[in-house]
Amino acid sequence: xxxxxxxxxxxxxxxxxxxxxxxxxxxxxxxxxxxxxxxxxxxxxxxxxxxxxxxxxxxxxxxxxxxxxxxxxxxxxxxxxxxxxxxxxxxxxxxxxxxxxxxxxxxxxxxxxxxxxxxxxxxxxxxxxxxxxxxxxxxxxxxxxxxxxxxxxxxxxxxxxxxxxxxxxxxxxxxxxxxxxxxxxxxxxxxxxxxxxxxxxxxxxxxxxxxxxxxxxxxxxxxxxxxxxxxxxxxxxxxxxxxxxxxxxxxxxxxxxxxxxxxxxxxxxxxxxxxxxxxxxxxxxxxxxxxxxxxxxxxxxxxxxxxxxxxxxxxxxxxxxxxxxxxxxxxxxxxxxxxxxxxxxxxxx
Length: 349
Description:
- It contains 13 helices and 2 strands.
- The protein is an all-alpha fold.
- Strands 1-2 form a two-stranded antiparallel sheet.
C-alpha cells in the first residue's frame, strides 16, 4: 500500500471511527440502555459482525454511493470523506444519533458544487427516498412485531426469569444480525469513494476464500468502525437507550429487530436479484440512515402506546441533527476543496 494512498484513506478511516461511535447506539443502544447487556459485550459483538457484514455484504449499497458523484481523484475523495467525518464527529459530540449516509451525501454534493459537475439525480432520489421510507418501514415492522410478541406472551406466558433469559439471548442474536446488516449497508459510506483507487491485489486466504481489492478496503473501513464503537459510543447509546423513550426489554428487542430488517432489505443483493428475477418490484440497494431506522422503530412502539413516554423534545433534537448534518458536510467539503486545490496544489477533479 503506497503512503500517498494511506494518507488519503486516513479521512475515510476517520469517517469510519466517527460513524462507529454512532452505529453502536443504533444496534445495541436499547439493549445497553435497558441493562440487558453490558457495554463491553455489546461493543465486541457489534464490532465483529459489522466487520463481517462490511467485507461480505457491502458491495451492493456501495455502488449507489459511488455513482452519486463519481469523484475521480484521490484528493477529492479525501476531502469528501473528511467533510463527512467532521459533520458526524460534531453531532456525535452532542450525543445525538446521526447517519453516515447523510454525511457522505453532503460531502459528495459539496464536491459536485465545487467542480461544477452534475449530480446523478437518479441515485440521489433513491437515497433521499430511502431517508423517508426507512423510518416509516421500521415503525411498521415495530408495530407488527410488538403485537405479535404480546400475543405470543399472552397465549404462552413465561416465568419472568425465563422471559429475561430469552430476551437477553434474542437481543444478542438480533444485535449481531443488525450489526452485520449495518456493516453491509453502510460500509459504502465510509470508503466507497476510494474503491476505484484501491491499490490492493486479490489475496488468497489459506486456500479457503479470496479477499478482493474492494473487500480489503471494506475490511480496513470495518476495523475503523470497530475502533469508534469501543472508544466513543457511550453518549449516543444513552440517547437511544434512555432519553427518547424508556423501553422495556421486550420493546428493546423489537426496536433492534425492526431496524435490522430494514437495513438488511436495502443491502441484500440476493434479495434484490430474487425479486427482479421473479418480476417483482425490487428494493433499491442504497445505504440508508441507520439512526432514522432505529428512531422510526421507537416511534412505532410509541404509536402503539398512543405516544405515552415519547420525549418529543429529545426527538426534535435528533431530527435537527439529521437536517443539519448534510449541510455541515456539504459546506465543509466545498470550502476544503478550494484549499486542497489552490493552497496545496492537489487536483480534486
